[in-house]
Amino acid sequence: MRMLYFTSLYFKRSVFTGANKRFDELGRFYVKLLKDQFRVIVCEGEQPDWAPDENCLFVPAYNNQLQRLRSFVALQSLLRRVEPGIVISDFMPIPFFGLRKHEHYQLIYDLRNFTEFKRGGLSFLTEAFQKRQLTRSTKIITISDFSRNDIVKYCSIAPQKIIVSYCGIDEAQFAAQAERDRTIDVLYVATFEPRKNHAALVRALGLSPSGLRVRFVGRDLGTRDEVIAMANTLVKDRGLEIEFIDSISEAELVDSYRNAGVYVFPSLLEGFGMPLIEAMATNCRVACSDIAVFREICEDHAIYFDPLDTKSIWRSIDQALKSESAPGTFDYATGRFSWEKIGRDLLIDLGLRSDS
Questions:
Q1: Cα 209–234–251 angle (5° rounding)?
Q2: Which one of 9, 72, 245, 258 has the fewest CB atoms closer than 10 angstroms to its CB?
Q3: What's the CA gap between 44 and 273, in Å, rounded?
Q4: How far is Cα of residue 162 from the mean position of the Cα atoms in its chain?
Q5: What is the DSSP annotation of 135-193?
Q6: What is the pLDDT of residues 217-272, one digit of tens each?
Q7: Distance of CA 337 to the CA centre of its chain
Q8: Does the predicted model carry a pTM greater than 0.85?
């Protein structure tokens, strides 16, 4: 069997994001299943706690663009030295020269650089650079049909070159369905950035009755102070209880979902939306933006609203709060989005396992 190289120079072992969680969960599964035919390539100092030394390869860490170039060169060199195999990598620039002896699958989560929510560092050149990188890739892995369609649309890539591999959940974390104890009315877990649309949710909460208990969980990526200022006005004028938490443990996160009346996701752009399936796995009601990717993930297990319409958001929240739980969503979430299923399906798509 060919070697599988699981590569991410973006991975941070101490940061809890959807991308890091995917790397952790699939890596943990593959290191047990594939053993000495599996290698992890990460930056120095970021060795995952599930990866033994013999399964790890490292390149220098980076904190600026010059150091990133050094890491890029080191990755090229490393890939040229190791035995041929399949390389899954999310890093750009893509080290094409180092990948000549390997079968390359570029992992990408979304094409936000083609929208108003750009995050690239090349200004107006970001779109052209990313399109060129993806066009030259042997194959691409992305996390939803929505993202695949965007890649086809914006980069003119044939659909058959793109593998869809969903994000998932750890069934063991959600298997014990404790009795719900509603200590939170409205929960939102997301980094604070414009596309997450916190401000619209806060405005919608201004239509709620007094005494509503709200919890926001997430790191600040630019909009947190603005949202807190808006929330403080509601606390003062409307008597709402609003809590802001930078980060919590996985166990505390599951408890938050389990004890929430509704998980609200008013985002304007996502490649997937992992909190949706986590909330559903606790039978928590979900109210979310009526965008294509959320329809794909939740199907008929969510209440949808227009994320640009304050009244629409509040009506959906109010409807969800009037129902204590969402029976059946646990089976739906764990049946469709378990990490083991996703991991095995991806191996079939890579040609490393058969479906027989």
A1: 85
A2: 245
A3: 29
A4: 18
A5: HHSSEEEES-HHHHHHHHHHH---GGGEEE----B-HHHHHS-PPP---EEEEEE--BS
A6: 999 999 999 999 999 999 988 899 999 999 898 889 999 999 999 999 999 999 99
A7: 13
A8: yes
Tokens at residue 328, please? 């059946």
**Contact, 105 vs 139, CB < 8 A?**
yes
Q: Which CATH class is domain 3-168+338-350?
A: alpha beta
User: 2.60.120.340, 3.40.50.2000, 3.50.50.60, 3.40.50.2300: which CATH number matches 171-336?
Assistant: 3.40.50.2000
- Spatial strand order of the sheet with 184-189 comes to 241-245, 213-217, 184-189, 260-265, 285-289, 303-305
Distance CA 41, CA 71 (A): 12
Beta strands 213-217 and 285-289 are unpaired
Cβ–Cβ < 8 Å for 305, 287: yes
What tokens appear for 73 in the block? 């060169």
Q: Which residues are CB-contacts of 268 (< 8 A; sequence separation ≥ 6)?
A: 117, 194, 195, 196, 197, 289, 291, 307
Domain residue limits, the chain = 3-168+338-350, 171-336
**59-62 CB contacts, 8 Å cutoff, 24+ apart:** 59/9, 62/9
Query: Residue with structure tokens 């042997």?
Result: 138
- Going by C-alpha positions, the residue among 265, 275, 216 that lies closest to residue 240 is 216
Give the separation between CA 274 and CA 288, rounded to whole angstroms: 12
